[in-house]
Amino acid sequence: MPSFKQALLASTLPSALLFASASSLGALAARADGNVADFFDQGKLLIDARYRYEQVDQDGLADEANAHTLRARVGFLTGKVFDLQFLVEGEGVVQFNDDFNDTTNGNVTFPVVADPEDFQINRLQVEYSGLPQTVITVGRQRINLDNQRFVGGVAFRQNEQTFDAARITNTSIENLNLTYIYVNQINRIFGEEGGPGAFQGALEGDTHLFNAGYDIKDWGKVTGYAYWIDLEDAPQATLPSTQTFGVRFAGKHPITEQLTALYGAEYATQSDFRNNPRSYDVDYWMLEGGVAAHGFKLLGGVESLEGNGVDRFQTPLATLHKFQGYADVFLVTPANGIVDVYGTLGYETKIADAEPLTSIMAAVTYHDFEAERGSADLGSEWDVEVTGKFGDHWSASVKYADYDGFGAGANADRKKLWLSAEFTY
Fold first, then answer.
1. How far is the CA of 360 from the CAs of 176, 188, 258, 298, 387, in angstroms?
2. What are the backbone angles phi and psi of residue 84, rounded to the nearest 5°?
3. For the segment 64-110, what is each residue's pLDDT rounded down to a tens digit?
4. DSSP code of 409?
5. Which of 58, 90, 185, 208 lies in disulfide reach of 228, CB 3.0 to 4.6 Å?
6. For the chain, what is the domain count?
7. pLDDT for the residue 252
8. What percent of the chain has pLDDT over 90?
9. Does residue 322 contact residue 331 with C-beta atoms inside 8 Å?
């Protein structure tokens, strides 16, 4: 188990620069005519603790996984001094048993529950907002772009995915948000002991992310993006270096006083980039629509990731758990691609003046999967989830996934159950 000192030393160049900047903060604040008090007095303590039980029953494996884990994050966000704001946050994941394959413990007769024990710096960043309508963030940080289909923090897993990066966001033009991010390391959910291969814990490289989103009043948001992902020493079959260009539109619009239309469409094209030894060109598209009324939501859609039999459209930096079923069968796109036809019925409401339950969310989703090339059956899945919030700080949830596949191996039948309780402050 790495010590705090070891975790600190594992921080990459942006984190080291952040520490150097923090060491001179006292000298800057001393000239701030009293603003040094704002550094702490206007700061905020950050606490996030989550216990989870995860059970996995997967055909073809001798044992059933039963994982009890606890994730705790403690951090501090300072007030602003000279338009500078600092954030530091440590994270620890502990296991109460080892009856599962956490991707690092070698328990290969059990299904995977990707929550390895780990202690590290989760976030360590400095933010500068002294330029007009511009924010610059440098260091280890959380990045979620759009719906996280291409870049996200994988918040569902106990160890969050973070990025050692420099980010510039500009809002000088009304309703337009421009973001450029340079990433030199991705700190994945598998922790510092992860790897090699698909479970590699950290990925270095020169990755450039550009995202431009324009809000259309009462209709939604249109986004154009270009992502150049260069991953050094990564297995290109599962973590390819790619260049992706796309456009997305998503939003909602009232039909009547009580009924709202929901809609979304997206298209992207992807090809090889730099360290990728293969030459290919594949496409992605998504269409969805639905209605919402009185807290209920009915949504249906189709998502397609192209495959040519060898190469396929992949999103290695995404929050993959949000897409193609909670059972996480298709974290790596099949060689012949995948088409996911899905439908969701959900309900969400806030409970006024209620104690202790203050809000509840519930949803059931059905997925039908087939290969994009050749239309072979890839199985189907039911997902159910219920989340309740209690006051300002507590929440609890139940989730269940039932994937009906074929054969053994990657497409074997599996059932997953999650029970969790979380405290945030």
1. 33, 30, 20, 17, 6
2. -105, 140
3. 999 999 999 999 999 999 899 999 999 999 999 999 999 999 999 99
4. G
5. 208
6. 1
7. 97
8. 81
9. no
Contact yes or no for 320/331 (Cβ under 8 A): yes
Give the other-Cβ count within 10 Å of 354's Cβ. 12
Lowest mean pLDDT, pick from 28-32, 71-75, 139-143: 28-32
* pLDDT for position 33: 45
Residue 284 pairs in a beta bridge with 268, 305
- Torsion over CA: 410, 362, 251, 129 (sign): negative
Quote the CA–CA distance of 40 and 30 in Å, as a whole number. 14
Single out the residue of 88, 75, 74, 84 nearest to residue 26, CA to CA. Answer: 84
How far apart, in Å, do the first and last CA atoms of the chain sit?
27
Provide the percentage of residues in the chain whose pLDDT is more than 70.
92
Maximum separation of any 2 CA atoms in the chain, in Å: 70
Calculate Rg over the CA atoms of the chain: 22
Residues 383/399, Cβ–Cβ less than 8 Å: yes
Of 87, 63, 64, which is closest to residue 75 (Cα–Cα)?
87
- Give dist(CA 380, CA 414) in Å, integer: 11
What amino acid is encoded at 212 in this protein?
Answer: A
Nearest alpha carbon to residue 141 among 169, 176, 113, 106: 169
| Structure-token match 């550009």, residue found | 210
Query: What average pLDDT does the segment 271-288 reach?
Result: 95
9 CB-near residues (< 8 Å, 6+ apart) = none
Q: What is the pLDDT of residue 409?
A: 76
Q: What is the CATH number of the domain that holds 165?
A: 2.40.160.10
Take residue 275 and report the two structure tokens written for it.
Answer: 């360290």
Range of the domain at 327: 4-424
Helix, coil or strand: residue 152: coil
The torsion angles phi and psi of 334, rounded to 5 degrees, stand at: -60, 155
Could you give the CA distance from residue 190 to residue 198 in angstroms, rounded to a whole number? Answer: 10
Cα torsion angle, 7, 9, 15, 20, sign: positive
Partners of 267 in the beta sheet?
247, 285
Six token digits for residue 156: 């569902």
**Cα 173 to Cα 215: distance, rounded to the nearest angstrom:** 11
Total count of residues recorded for the chain: 425
Across the chain, mean pLDDT equals 91
